[in-house]
Design a protein that fits this description.
This is Transposase. It holds the Pfam family LZ_Tnp_IS66. InterPro entries: Transposase-related (IPR052344), Transposase_TnpC_homeodom (IPR024463), Znf_dom_IS66 (IPR024474). There is one protein chain. The protein folds into two domains: 91 residues; 57 residues, no CATH class. The chain is elongated and about 90 Å long. About 11% of the residues have low confidence. It is built from four helices and four strands; from the N terminus they run ααααββββ. Helix content is 45%, strand content 22%. By secondary structure, the chain is an alpha+beta fold. Strands 1, 2, 3 and 4 form a four-stranded mixed sheet that branches.
Amino acid sequence: MSNAAENLPDDPALLKAMIAALQAENAQMSATLQAHDQLIQTLRLRIARLKKQAFGKCAEKIEREIQQLELALEDLLIAAAESNAGPINQADEAASAAPVASVPERIMRRRPRVSAKSVRERRELDPGTCCPACGGELRLVGEDVSEILDMIAAQMKVIEVARLKKSCRCCEKMVQ
């Protein structure tokens, strides 16, 4: 401690500026930590809710979503542990699992923002070149495009799935 005190300037204005900078940095780190904690909490709540719904019509979809959320949660916990943000233990997890039934969760309706620099992969689902009804040649009319966010080991990738729309030149039947 005495070595650190010797390295500090004697000017009160410089000391005040250093304190202000450290306080701003501390506030920014606190906000980041709070955002990570809130994200971890919401992921835990979603996983708990999905585990309760695992026996229904869409059990396979729910199981895949649970696996993806658990991977995302694991990545966040690893990132939090690496940044020494604070101990995250099983007691926090047990405490967060208890209020699942009493706390209504708000559903996010908007899409998360993904940077334009993100890795993108395009997959096209082509119905073929021949009409299944009459065997005539198909021409491209349009496409339905959907995007899926995929998190791979702390890396996000956008998978764009394009379902091509084609129509037959002979019978004008639409094929997807």
